[in-house]
Specification:
This protein has a domain of about 160 residues: Porin (Beta Barrel), CATH 2.40.160. It is about 15% helix and about 50% strand. It is built from 3 helices and 11 strands. This is Outer membrane protein beta-barrel domain-containing protein. It comes from Hymenobacter ruricola.
Length: about 260
């Protein structure tokens, strides 16, 4: 009987152990930690580009009654071609619209007058004028005129004689442009009238006086070549070779 009880108790223990192994385990009360989502890089908008600072243009003072002068017009430059074409004319000493005056003293023209005895004479004075009527090629063309005067007086005892020579003529010349505002070289032709007069006075010992006069004129064609150099904008000097009032003339020039 005791063996039976012992077997039954052992069987009960085995059955209880098997039942305990097949029972589901207790659920864990611990809650899992929440997953941290992966950080996605946030794209920030690009900073706007700085705006250029526009400075207002300085005000330009009005130069005429029509209003202020535009800054762009004031700063604009002439086209290169136009500047060069203007320069070729403006840098010459003589051109269209120019005026020049020569006052000179002449040397070397033989008037075939008597120079023996007590003789006095004036220099061969000349005055010529030129006006530019147009530009032509590398130079300019001028028209004008010239006047000249010379006199000789001879005395011997009671007799005296005076010769006077007056020249009036028209001129045309070509002025070569050296692109030098101070230098003017020219050459041309002239057509003039020469008037020659003579007077003679004789006083005799007895108090008798006799006198005589004569005059004549002739047309002449002349040629000349010369050059002027201006020391300033208005005043200069000139030298000229020709056959109107004298072979060589030297003197002062003026332009206006």
């Amino acid at each position: 009987m005791q063996k039976v009880l012992t077997f039954a108790l052992a069987a009960a223990l085995v059955a209880g152990s098997a039942h305990a192994q097949t029972r589901p385990g207790a659920r864990s009360t611990a809650r899992p930690l929440p997953r941290t989502p992966a950080k996605t890089p946030v794209e920030r908008p690009a900073a706007p580009a700085p705006k250029p600072v526009v400075k207002p243009a300085p005000a330009v003072a009005a130069t005429s009654s029509s209003g202020p002068v535009e800054a762009e017009r004031a700063s604009s430059q002439e086209p290169l071609g136009k500047t060069l074409s203007m320069k070729t004319v403006s840098d010459r000493s003589f051109g269209k619209g120019s005026s020049a005056l020569n006052l000179g003293v002449g040397f070397g023209l033989g008037y075939n007058y008597t120079t023996g005895g007590n003789t006095t004479q004036t220099p061969a004075l000349s005055l010529s004028y030129m006006y530019g009527v147009g530009n032509a090629g590398p130079g300019a063309i001028s028209v004008g005129g010239a006047v000249g005067y010379k006199s000789i007086t001879w005395k011997d005892g009671g007799e005296s004689a005076t010769w006077r020579n007056i020249y009036v003529g028209a001129r045309g010349a070509f002025h070569y442009g050296f692109h030098n505002p101070r230098l003017d070289a020219y050459a041309g032709l002239g057509l003039g009238l020469r008037v020659v007069s003579y007077s003679d006075n004789y006083s005799a010992a007895a108090g008798l006086n006799t006198s005589s006069t004569s005059s004549g004129s002739q047309a002449e064609v002349s040629s000349f070549i010369g050059a002027r150099y201006f020391f300033s904008d208005k005043i200069g000097a000139f030298a000229e070779l020709g056959n109107d009032t004298s072979y060589l003339k030297l003197g002062l020039s003026g332009r206006f």
